[in-house]
Design a protein that fits this description.
Strand content: 15-25%
Mean pLDDT: 88
Distance between the termini: 35 Å
Radius of gyration: 16 Å
Number of helices: 5
Shape: globular
Helix content: 40-55%
Strand order of the largest sheet: 2-1-3-4-5
Length: 142
């Protein structure tokens, strides 16, 4: 089963190239050009991972990261940036970023991170389901 990836970047050309390359690797890629569009589509579709530019006009990467994690805490978010500072990276990881890659991202490394993100999301969802089942059983004296 292929990885479902939401690719978020304000550079159209970058989106097209990365989408083609990721699709060629068997991923199902949806692209949007802003964090606002990403939040909108997250209400309609499910994804295994989000690959998102950290520096975008409008809602920046940190704001977007917080909003996405608030909406879908299980989602794995890989941030791309051309200007990563150690402070920003640490802050983003604390907020819930799965990983950070510098642009231009090595496709091999990115593909591996996306596969790992999908596995991590599945583990989180399984754990959430186990908790729900446990709570139901406890409520019903089982």
């Amino acid at each position: 089963m292929s990885e479902k990836v939401l690719l978020v970047d304000d550079e159209k050309e970058f989106l097209e190239i990365m989408s083609e390359r990721m699709t060629a690797r068997g991923m199902e890629v949806t692209t949007v050009e802003s964090a606002d569009q990403a939040l909108t589509i997250l209400g309609k579709k499910t994804f295994d991972a989000i690959v998102m530019d950290f520096q975008m006009p409008g809602m920046d990467g940190m704001e977007a990261l917080k909003a996405i994690k608030n909406l879908k805490p299980e989602l794995q978010i890989i941030l791309l940036t051309g200007y990563a500072t150690v402070e920003k990276t640490v802050e983003a990881m604390k907020v819930g970023a799965t990983d950070f890659l510098e642009k231009p991202a090595d496709l091999e490394a990115l593909s591996e991170k996306i596969k790992n993100a999908k596995t991590e999301k599945m583990l989180i969802v399984e754990k959430q389901m186990e908790e729900k089942i446990k709570n139901i059983l406890q409520r019903h004296g089982g």
